[in-house]
Amino acid sequence: MKFMDKTAINPAIELPLMEAFYTIQGEGAYSGCAAYFIRLGGCDVGCVWCDVKDSWNADKWPVTSIDKIVEEANKHPAKLAVITGGEPLMYDMSVLTANLRSQGFQINVETSGAHAFSGSWDWVCLSPKKFKAPLPEWYQHANELKVIIFNQSDFQWAEEHASKINSGCKLLLQPEWSKQEKMTPLIVDYVKENPQWQISLQTHKYLNIP
Ligand SMILES: C[S@@+](CC[C@H](N)C(=O)[O-])C[C@H]1O[C@@H](n2cnc3c(N)ncnc32)[C@H](O)[C@@H]1O
Ligand SMILES: Nc1nc2[nH]cc(C(=O)O)c2c(=O)[nH]1
Ligand code: SF4
Ligand SMILES: [Mg+2]
User: Fold this and answer.
1) Which of 42, 132, 176, 182 could form a disulfide with 58 if both were Cys (CB 3.0 to 4.6 A apart)?
2) What whole-number distance in Å separates Cα of residue 84 and Cα of residue 131?
3) How far does the centroid of ligand 4 lie from the alpha carbon of residue 178, in Å?
């Protein structure tokens, strides 16, 4: 296995791959759909409540050829790929997305939007973070805005992003996992009062699947 400093990675041929797994999309508009998850290593956003902190250091994860990533993805019946991380947009996503598309995949992305747009996406989940704000270019590309609710002030913060988003974008509020018991009832009340929003739950955690 090859490991290297992520600055030396050529994202036209290889990427640091933390894990890839076939599961059910647990969150957002595609919740319930079988999907192949590709989790890239490396993130510099630093969310205090991140549920995959192990992903942050890209150097920990094997540099894997895009050909291999796509070959593995192709072994499963669902032709829906979800690119996540870490923060996948740390890398130029052009070649990974082009190669998956050439194999007939629908390609969804989970991103904070903190890095420059690249790649060709069928569905963009923009999940903005206080720890490193999204770049303005992401508001036009987002198909769903998924705001994590960790405390009361996050509702106001969610509205700030909603005011900048494109008009076709779905608006989703998702409880931060460790605060779920406290915040979910507040989210229920909020959505009843503000029905332009919907609830997104991390259903894979309730189902005990990856
Ligand atoms: C681990 S992140 C990776 C993709 C990208 N870095 C991002 O944050 O969008 C995948 C999704 O999980 C969400 N998430 C991470 N930790 C969470 C937690 N503790 N509770 C609820 N959602 C969480 C993120 O907001 C994001 O929508
Ligand atoms: N089942 C499942 N659904 C997910 N939706 C977004 C995830 C992610 O970590 O990006 C995720 C994940 O890790 N597992
Ligand atoms: S941006 Fe995503 S991967 Fe990075 S710390 Fe935040 S939740 Fe975790
Ligand atoms: Mg996850």
Assistant:
1) 42
2) 18
3) 13
User: Which numbered ligand comes closest to the C-alpha of 148?
Assistant: 1
Q: Supply the CATH number for residue 89's domain.
A: 3.20.20.70
Does pTM surpass 0.90? Answer: yes
Closest alpha carbon to 202 in 175, 183, 179: 175
Phi, psi for 50 (deg, rounded to 5): -55, 135
Question: Minimum-distance ligand to the CA of 27?
Answer: 2
Q: What span, in angstroms and rounded, lies between the C-alpha atoms of 209 and 8?
A: 34
Tens-place pLDDT, residues 132-179: 999 999 999 999 999 999 999 999 999 999 999 999 999 999 999 999
Annotated binding site for [4Fe-4S] cluster: 43, 47, 50
Residue 1: inside a domain, yes or no? no
Q: How far is the CA of 52 from the centre of ligand 4 (A)?
A: 7
Give yes or no for residue 23 CB within 6 A of ligand 2: yes
